[in-house]
TrEMBL record:
Xref: InterPro entries: F-box-assoc_dom_typ3 (IPR013187), F-box-assoc_interact_dom (IPR017451), F-box-like_dom_sf (IPR036047), F-box_dom (IPR001810), Gal_Oxase/kelch_b-propeller (IPR011043)
Domain F-box: 13-53
Keywords: Membrane, Transmembrane, Transmembrane helix
Organism: Brassica carinata (Ethiopian mustard)
Record NCBIfam families: F_box_assoc_1
Cross-referenced Pfam families: F-box (PF00646), FBA_3 (PF08268)
Keyword Transmembrane helix: yes
Transmembrane residue ranges: 389-408
Signal peptide residues on this chain, from the entry's feature table: none
Domain of life per record: Eukaryota
Name of the protein this chain belongs to: F-box domain-containing protein
């Protein structure tokens, strides 16, 4: 009581109120506040806080490969922002899930979280190597001999990497938390190894269009394969892409059979029972010329990226062009003609691996297990991230307003 009288201006805020304040702050401020105390650090690095943070409404963002030339061309528009990732591995093809990036390489599998700057590297296994460039075809996304997958187990929140080498009958799964490869039961059929997979609601999906049109799925919790029974109408080309579009499985492909030259995007419902053609975008005379370089344009592949709150669709192609399409007005425009898109970007504060592991790369090459971990500061992972709240002054103002609001509510 005497202590309270000596410090009449001291304010005590319960832990729940502190967390309510912190969850609304900008990403940069949250990362700074980890150094305030052990209690705050524990709160900010907890899975509960990370899950709450992801539910806070934010402007749609996309992740792109960094570079001064690229960054000077496009920063975003009224509906979307661009986050640029700057690291050596960023230029390689990658898989993403909830803002976490997985980059398969011939001898390594790198997993990084651009939001926290955490970077992990694992040995890729004995049968994971780069294909001969002479065998690569125009629709290839990966130049490795394994079909790769990356996603999040929705039950326990763990991130997992899947590698399937049909040539060597080797099927493995890596738990990022543990850092060890384990064997998987072989899938019921082969899928193409040179195209990307997609993770939706705890399952990874691979598209097979060459031997027979099929969709293979793997439940990341039970680690069991299944065949998706209901399929969209037959696709038209090897350029078909399977993606996660707003937490729903989607397939995009070019249709040249109908009048014009159309990009069709089919979306599956949550129960895997029906497909609907949500978008049909005419590209002829708008994106693709019908008279010049027809063969070259035919090899152009388009990938859906995100849907803004206003309902506009963003997609990109293999020529580093970013497009915006308004389905209500049928208006299509090119936002950038020189940008290397990685994926949609989601702020994710989940720690990839909370345990203590070596921070230096051991000599030689190991078959299984964690080989390299480096907690890289966020400024080294991405040097340019455009935020709507530029400085700590507005952050302090926001904290004061929230505190005042809670204080007023409790008094009344």
């Amino acid at each position: 009581m005497e202590e309270d009288e000596e410090n009449p201006s001291q304010v005590y805020i319960v832990a729940d109120v502190v967390e309510e304040i912190l969850v609304r702050l900008p990403l940069k401020s949250i990362l700074r506040f980890k150094t305030v105390s052990r209690q705050w650090r524990s709160t900010l690095e907890s899975r509960r806080f990370a899950d709450r943070r992801m539910l806070v409404p934010k402007k749609q963002k996309i992740l792109a490969v960094g570079g001064n030339q690229t960054q000077s061309r496009f920063q975003g528009d009224a509906e979307i922002e661009t986050v640029y990732l700057e690291c050596d591995e960023a230029t390689r093809p990658s898989l993403t899930c909830n803002g976490v990036v997985c980059i398969p390489e011939p001898n390594w599998v790198s997993v990084l979280n651009p939001s926290t700057g955490e970077f992990l590297r694992f040995c890729s296994g004995p049968f994971h190597y780069e294909n001969d460039m002479s065998t690569e075809v125009w629709w290839s996304e990966f130049n490795i001999n394994s079909a790769m997958g990356f996603g999040k187990d929705e039950v326990n929140g763990k991130y997992k990497v899947v590698s399937m080498s049909f040539e060597h009958n080797s099927y493995q799964i890596l738990d990022v938390d543990i850092g060890q490869w384990r064997k998987l039961v072989p899938p019921p059929y082969k899928v193409v190894t040179s195209t990307k997979s997609a993770c939706v609601k705890g399952s990874i999906y691979w598209l097979e269009v060459f031997r027979k049109f099929k969709i293979l799925a793997l439940d990341l919790h039970t680690e069991e394969f299944r065949d998706v029974q209901v399929l969209p109408p037959l696709l038209h080309s090897a350029a078909a892409r399977i993606v996660n579009l707003d937490d729903r499985l989607a397939i995009a492909d070019i249709c040249m059979m109908k009048p014009g030259w159309n990009l069709e995007i089919w979306i599956m419902d949550a129960q895997e029972e029906t497909w609907s053609m949500t978008y049909c975008i005419t590209l002829a005379h708008r994106v693709i010329s019908m008279h010049e370089r027809v063969i070259e344009e035919w090899k152009t592949m388009f990938t859906p990226l995100a849907v803004s709150k206003e309902g506009c669709l963003f997609f990109y192609d293999t020529k580093k062009r970013l497009f915006k399409y308004d389905p209500e007005t049928d208006f299509l425009c090119c936002l950038s003609s020189d940008i290397c898109i990685i994926s949609p970007f989601v702020e994710n504060l989940v720690r990839l691996h909370p345990g203590c592991v070596p921070k230096t790369r051991p000599p030689g090459w190991c078959r299984n297990g964690r080989s390299y971990l480096n907690h890289v500061p966020a400024s080294q992972i991405f040097k340019r991230i455009k935020l709507q709240i530029p400085n700590i002054l507005l952050t302090s103002t926001l904290v004061s307003l929230i505190c005042f609001g809670y204080s007023y509510r409790y008094r009344t």
